[in-house]
């Protein structure tokens, strides 16, 4: 797909890639760095704030909801005013808003600032993904999509530990680390470049190439449903472990860390799986792994079985984001990349936000418990895997000479 309103691309190399990958990692850092201080926030504000039971969790999870709501707007702004300038502004706001809670003594104000912080995260996520699509094509684009997911996983694990260590001293300490991205802004100014866009004349009202709306909607649905299934482990595993009599915060934390590690492994496996199975075949595989992991989790009677389920599930989730993101990028024209990737980001975070609501709805509809709901959703994931397998087989029969990576 070509767009006459976008000038030829400059030569793009590792420097641009490094800056974009570091920018992308800010989004995971925004959530994991403050998660370990949740008990300290309760201890600080619980005795003086009647709504602490509602507001403290919202201070941690609120940015995710803000990302879901603001990502489409961020995408429109990126298409209208440019990716680079919006990314730099959002990074500046990320640093300032991220550190502000350390100076506040009112829980309601902290929640408000965290919601604004989520808006900055939405712009960063959307701009970084859009710049990847702007700068690279074909296999190079897929490579940087995967690098992005891997970098986010590594930085998430690192800053989860860092946030926990700093939080031992004071709940305010981790927030000061949000000032670190200020060091990234000079590199963004120097290294990144904005594709030059010309105002279309009357004969160029519509650019060459059209958005593949079917592929776009399928990608949105895949990432939404995948996040609903993927976030089950994050939210429900501690509940299931307590039900097994495992109340040690260390063991529960180890299970969460194990899931994060397996997600990273899935991201590393994804390029090979995509080459061997194609996009549809890889979707069938990852949904099957998610289904198996959820089934093991729902039926686990020991801590080791829980860990096995979390591990298998994490590998599937690790392949999900790059395998859903790449077709969405390819479905868009250069002039719609920002809006399209904004929609992708919104679908991802709405799926995370909806996950516990979906589990609750299944419990109510089936009259079952958490284990029964997770088992039902495991079957739904397996059904999705079968549909993608049928799509893969159908495409192979209709175009036997097409390389697997294209399907």
TrEMBL record:
It is a multi-pass membrane protein. The chain crosses the membrane at residues 18-38, 58-78, 85-104, 110-132, 144-163, 175-193, 214-233, 239-264, 276-298, 310-332, 344-366, 372-391. Keywords: Membrane, Transmembrane, Transmembrane helix, Transport. GO terms for cellular component: endomembrane system; plasma membrane. One of its GO terms (molecular function) is transmembrane transporter activity. It is found in: Endomembrane system. The keyword Cell membrane does not apply. The keyword Transmembrane applies. Residues 16-395 form the Major facilitator superfamily (MFS) profile domain. This is MFS-type drug efflux transporter P55. It comes from Halomonas salipaludis. The lineage of its organism: Bacteria, Pseudomonadati, Pseudomonadota, Gammaproteobacteria, Oceanospirillales.
């Amino acid at each position: 797909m070509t767009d006459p309103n976008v000038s030829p691309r400059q030569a793009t190399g590792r420097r641009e890639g490094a800056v974009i990958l570091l920018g992308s990692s800010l989004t995971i850092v925004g959530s994991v760095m403050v998660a370990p201080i949740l008990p300290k926030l309760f201890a600080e504000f619980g005795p003086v704030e009647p709504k602490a039971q509602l507001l403290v969790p919202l201070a941690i999870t609120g940015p995710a909801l803000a990302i879901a709501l603001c990502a489409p707007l961020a995408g429109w702004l990126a298409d209208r005013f440019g990716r680079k300038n919006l990314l730099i502004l959002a990074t500046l706001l990320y640093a300032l808003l991220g550190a502000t809670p350390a100076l506040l003594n009112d829980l309601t104000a902290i929640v408000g600032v965290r919601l604004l912080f989520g808006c900055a995260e939405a712009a960063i996520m959307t701009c970084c993904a859009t710049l990847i699509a702007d700068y690279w094509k074909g296999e190079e684009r897929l490579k940087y999509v995967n690098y992005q997911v891997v970098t986010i996983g590594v930085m998430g694990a690192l800053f989860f530990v860092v946030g926990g260590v700093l939080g031992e001293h004071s709940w305010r300490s981790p927030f000061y680390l949000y000032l670190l991205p200020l060091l990234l802004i000079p590199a963004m100014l120097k290294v990144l470049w904005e594709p030059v866009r010309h105002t279309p004349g009357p004969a160029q009202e519509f650019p060459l190439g059209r958005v593949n709306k079917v592929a776009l909607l399928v990608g949105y649905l895949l990432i939404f449903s995948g996040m609903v299934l993927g976030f089950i482990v994050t939210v429900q595993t501690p509940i299931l472990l307590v039900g097994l009599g495992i109340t040690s915060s260390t063991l529960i934390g180890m299970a969460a860390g194990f899931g994060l590690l397996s997600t990273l492994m899935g991201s590393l496996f994804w390029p090979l799986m995509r080459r061997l199975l194609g996009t549809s075949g890889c979707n069938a595989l990852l949904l099957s792994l998610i289904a198996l992991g959820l089934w093991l989790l729902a039926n686990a009677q020991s801590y080791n079985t829980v860990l096995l389920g979390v591990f298998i599930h994490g590998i599937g989730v690790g392949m999900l984001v790059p395998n859903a993101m790449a077709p969405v990028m390819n479905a868009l024209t250069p002039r719609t990349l920002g809006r399209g990737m904004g929609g992708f980001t919104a679908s991802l975070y709405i799926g995370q936000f909806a996950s516990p609501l979906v589990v609750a709805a299944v419990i109510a509809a089936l009259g079952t418990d958490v284990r029964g709901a997770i088992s039902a959703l495991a079957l739904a994931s397996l059904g999705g895997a079968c549909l993608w397998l049928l799509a893969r087989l159908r495409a192979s029969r209709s175009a036997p000479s097409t390389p697997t990576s294209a399907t």
